[in-house]
Specification:
Rossmann fold; 11 helices; 8 strands; 40% helix; carboxyl-O-methyltransferase activity; S-adenosyl-L-methionine; malonyl-CoA methyltransferase activity
């Protein structure tokens, strides 16, 4: 792999072995993604698929089972994830795995190489999405398809509301904890600016129940993500901040069996050039 692995790659690398046990929503998103794909199986010749951010291989396995003749390249930034994906997917030479940072690798990737580029719950981590989408547009054959799932801005809104209330109750400026997620319209704009056409967006709000706020945050951490990115405000330790947040969250968002956690799920599709396939 070219260059050093950044903080995102290191996070997922450390948590590769615990990822699947907590990735309930991500599995659901994988199924939605596969079911949304057009019927390319009737095309002449084999379909060439690039999967970006393959993780432990859940989506890779679905693609290999669904499309028996497809050639699949599964890429991930975390080598420990790829090790697990290799063990999971047994498809001979139809599936190959690549350890790379797609934002670096994509700049030199071959043009018109793939029919479909897919990605599940990954693109929220891109540092330069417009540039990366331009690389994808070049890498796709005419009429090729980019389809991906990601999280929208209302993901974990309960958590952010609880944090905000704690800050405001102490007369402090609220700080963001965790990622900020783009809206469907923002993704559409990025895809259009990158040269894609007939961009489509679907949105679904899904609510999970966790036994407690601590259980929810542990689950997120066990997948390689984090909600503690902001620095504690002056006069408020991180421990006190989280203790107050737990109380606020459980007061406002308790449900039978625990607490509610919202996931704002986006499914995006975009075509490279002219195509009658949909």
């Amino acid at each position: 792999m070219r260059g050093k692995m950044g903080p995102v790659g290191r996070q997922f690398n450390r948590n590769a072995t615990t990822y699947d046990a907590h990735a309930h929503v991500q599995r659901m998103m994988s199924i939605q993604l596969v079911e949304s794909l057009p019927c390319w199986k009737e095309r002449d010749g084999k379909v060439n698929i690039l999967e970006v951010g393959c993780g432990t291989g859940a989506l890779t396995e679905m693609l290999a089972k669904e499309w028996h003749d497809a050639k699949i390249t599964a890429l991930d930034i975390a080598p420990e994830m790829i090790k697990l994906a290799r063990k999971r997917v047994f498809s001979g030479d139809r599936v190959s795995f690549l350890h790379a940072d797609v934002e670096i690798w994509g700049a030199d990737a071959p043009s018109a190489m793939y029919d479909i580029i897919v990605s599940n719950a990954c693109f929220q981590w891109l540092s330069h999405p417009e540039q990366t989408f331009s690389h994808f547009r070049r890498m796709l054959r005419p009429g090729g398809l980019l389809v991906f799932t990601t999280f929208g801005p209302d993901t974990f809104y309960e958590l952010h509301e609880a944090f905000e209330e704690v800050y405001r109750a102490r007369g402090m400026e609220p700080q963001r904890h965790g990622l900020s997620f783009k809206t469907g319209d923002q993704w559409i704009n990025l895809l259009n600016k990158s040269g894609f056409s007939r961009v489509q967006s679907e949105r679904k709000l899904h609510v999970e129940t966790y036994t407690s706020v601590r259980d929810f945050l542990y689950s997120i951490k066990a997948m390689g993500a984090s909600t503690s990115g902001a620095a504690a405000a002056s006069g408020l330790s991180m421990r006190r901040l989280f203790a107050s947040m737990y109380k606020e969250y459980e007061t406002k968002f308790s449900v039978p069996g625990g607490v509610a956690v919202s996931y704002d799920l986006l499914l995006m599709r975009a075509f490279a050039g002219d195509s009658n396939d949909a």
